[in-house]
Structures are given as C-alpha cells and as structure tokens.
Amino acid sequence: MRTNRSVPASTVIPVLTYPDVREAVAWLGAAFGFVERVRIGEDHRAQLGVGDGAVIVADTGGDRRPPRPGEVTHSVTVRVEDAGTHCERARRSGARIVTEPADFPFGERQYTAEDLAGHRWTFSETLVDVAPEEWGGTSVTGSG
Between residues 26 and 11, which one has the greater pLDDT? Predict the structure, then answer.
C-alpha cells in the first residue's frame, strides 16, 4: 500500500461526527491521549493519532450527526498500556465511564467510556496471550 502524508497510515480509520470539532480534538487529547496530526479547515475535520491507530473527527452537516442521547450506534476499541490509569485520566477529564476496568478470560482488561458527544470507546490492555479456543472462541484463518 502506498503512503500519503495527508492520510493516516492506519488500515482502518473511523470517522466520528462531533458538534464542535475543535472542542472534540481538545477533549479527546485531554481525556484519551489522542494527538492531532492534521487539521482540515478550522472546524471541518481533524485527523488524530493514538499509538499506531487513527481516528478522524468530522463536523456535523448533511447526514452526519453524533449519536443521540441513549443511542449506541458503534464502539471504537483502542489498545492501551494500562487500562486502570487510562480510565482515571478519562474520568478526570469528564468521560462517563460506562463499565469500569475488568479482566476478561480472553486475556484483556477493558473499560468502556462515553465521550462528550456520546461516542462509545472501549480501551483494552493486554494481560496475557490466550488462544481463542481457551475461552470459547474459534480461530479462523483468512486472507485478511
């Protein structure tokens, strides 16, 4: 795949809509540690990086809108080094913690938070490498 400095290098890039792009960029940085890498217009879009991943924050307009209160249309999972510490940072920044950090049989410690616009984020810390078959999953090989 060719690289392009105008687009994040990640293979999958969620685009999430916020009523105020600048406010969302500042909040996502403070709460979740995202870093702005490209700004498109003053309040149109922004590309944010986190680890080797990326997300695009987009303005409202046309058919783009953030989730309505009480509505969950999606969740974005982000891998982090320490879910407990990350959760406390998010809480201090005003994130609504939907589920507290918990350990799961598939080897991850995860928590879920809702951001200022109602988007759901699950943050996942790897505790141990576990084969899917050990917890009831099934390994499937494919061409990716």
Answer: 26
Domain around 121: 15-59+72-134
Mean pLDDT of the chain: 94
The amino acid at residue 142 is G
CA distance 102 to 81: 14
43 in a domain, yes or no? Answer: yes
Residue 123 belongs to a domain with what CATH number? 3.10.180.10
Alpha helices in 12-144 (DSSP H): 21-32, 83-92
| Of 81, 24, 30, 83, nearest in space to 55 by CA | 24
97 within domain boundaries: yes
| pLDDT score at 38 | 96
Whether 139 maps to a domain, the answer reads no
Residue 52, in any domain of the structure: yes
H/E element, 58:
strand 53-58
Rounded Cα distance between 13 and 75, Å, is 13
Q: What is the pLDDT of residue 73?
A: 87
Instruction: Pick the closest to residue 20 from 1, 37, 3, 42 (CA basis).
Output: 42
